[in-house]
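notes to self, project folder thing:

trying the whole complex as one job this time. last attempt i did each chain seperately and stitching them together was a nightmare. two parts in total, labels are on each line so i dont mix them up again. if this works i'll redo the older ones the same way
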Amino acid sequence: MIGVRARAALLSAFIFLLSMVVWHMAVHGGGAGGPALDPEYAKLMGVQMAGAKSAMPGPLDVGAKLVEHLRHPFYNNGPNDKGLGLQLLYSIGRVALGYTLALAAALPLGFLIGMSELAYKALDPFIQILKPVSPLAWMPLALYTIKDSGLSAIFVIFICSVWPMLINTAFGVASVRKEWLNVARTLEVGPWRRAITVILPAAAPTILTGMRISVGIAWLVIVAAEMLVGGTGIGYFVWNEWNNLSISNVIVAILMIGLIGMILDQMLARCQRAVTFPE
Amino acid sequence: MADERFISVEGIARRYAVGDHVTTIFEDLWLALPKGAFTCVIGHSGCGKTTVLNILAGLESPSEGAVIVDGHEISGPSLDRAVIFQGHALLPWKTVLGNVAYAVASRWKTASRTEIRDRAQRYIDLVGLRGSEHKRPAELSGGMKQRVGIARALSIEPKILLMDEPFSALDALTRGALQDEARRLCAEAGQTVFMITHDVDEAIYLADRIVLMTNGPGALVAEIVENPLPRDRARDALHHAAAYYPLRNHLIDFLVTRGGAFRDNLPAGYDRRRPPVTTQWPGAPIAPTPMAMATNFATR
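result (full assembly):
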């Protein structure tokens, strides 16, 4: 008898194959016979369309496209023709920059809010109102004030990833067990040393949870933001390929976005496990 | 005489305000603890024992009055007064060694890594945890965790050791073993100890003096009982000592009946500033002072 793990892997492979087959049959008309192209309509559209299949690619087309992209990920043939890997690197760079800035702002501010009831109560209304705003709603304001589309995209990443980290840091800091703080007090540990040796490790699992949520949101938002600001990045690539009606490229990009998103999440999950302590 | 009032609680009060209503846990509380003595406080829950201990630790401030330790009024927590918490309060992300070393490094800020490590290791050995230095608290049993708590408290060589029901969360066997350990370590170091308990037998076994507190709010120190049992008493022989049952009855009698009514009919000549030190109760050994008893036992 094989283990659950192996059986799950088999089932996954089966689901994958099944969906590929269904996809393939759906695109190529299958046995049921999809809506055949009207010959009159084909004539109207010109000879090159006669007998052509729909613009929706099948799994084999996408697979071929994927191999092509993987073979040359970093080519650069001017603004509208860059390798997929290069576009992903632009996006990852933007996310890394905006996210790091957000972390640098959220950690100290979260500490302050978590440690002081006054700061918490004073800042709470701002956080509550700004948190639910879609990051893209900031875009026009960012474009107007910053006057640079690249920096505006980074700002949008900053503003969307700052809230979960801020709230989780404040919550983690505020809920450090009182007995641990009392230990530090009876040992006459100074405020800085206390923050670093007691509060930070105690709040770290909660902070990492916030960081993990943030990186997920940032990766969601960067695609939309790049569609708006254009130029470079995976979001721009998707929009550009949509304009080229190259659905194969769009699907390849979707796969890559999913893959990178998963890697980012797993990296933070690993950090989270490293700082989590059993009680 | 300074040693007799090594720790001097002078007229402290603790009040909590909830809205307009002020609750007085206790007020005008006086208590002196001699140097090198093991003092236990017993009383019912809510009589303010823990509050008194927290004030001694500096974790809470008295609403009125002051606490003098070794000639200085205390203001906040200090490395001179180590606390063993009821819930052990180890830092779960640090190892056993890390937890003790954290205290040592807080005490000797300029000490080198090896000095800190060696000292921490010495106290871990002292409580019998050699071999478990690199375990995290989650991997230890309740008794072992509390041993780490004891090692951490003793490692900073405090003037006073404050213990808040340190063994109450442990099973009976472990509790017994840890009481033996605590007794041995404190006796060896001549440690001044202030311990809270609600276990009469624990108080009899460990304490030189037992402070009886009445129920709060408005708790009082009713009396201080000098333990007539010899200082080098052994746990297994304890209940054979002639003085044991009368003492135990005296304490339980206080907890069950006398404690409740104490406030309403204070004994004649009761002075809050000098709570009576009792050596006399039904069946108590006649007249001998505890020191004389100890000598008798030693020469026997």
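what i see at first glance: The first strand of chain B starts at residue 7 and ends at 18.
need to look closer tmrw
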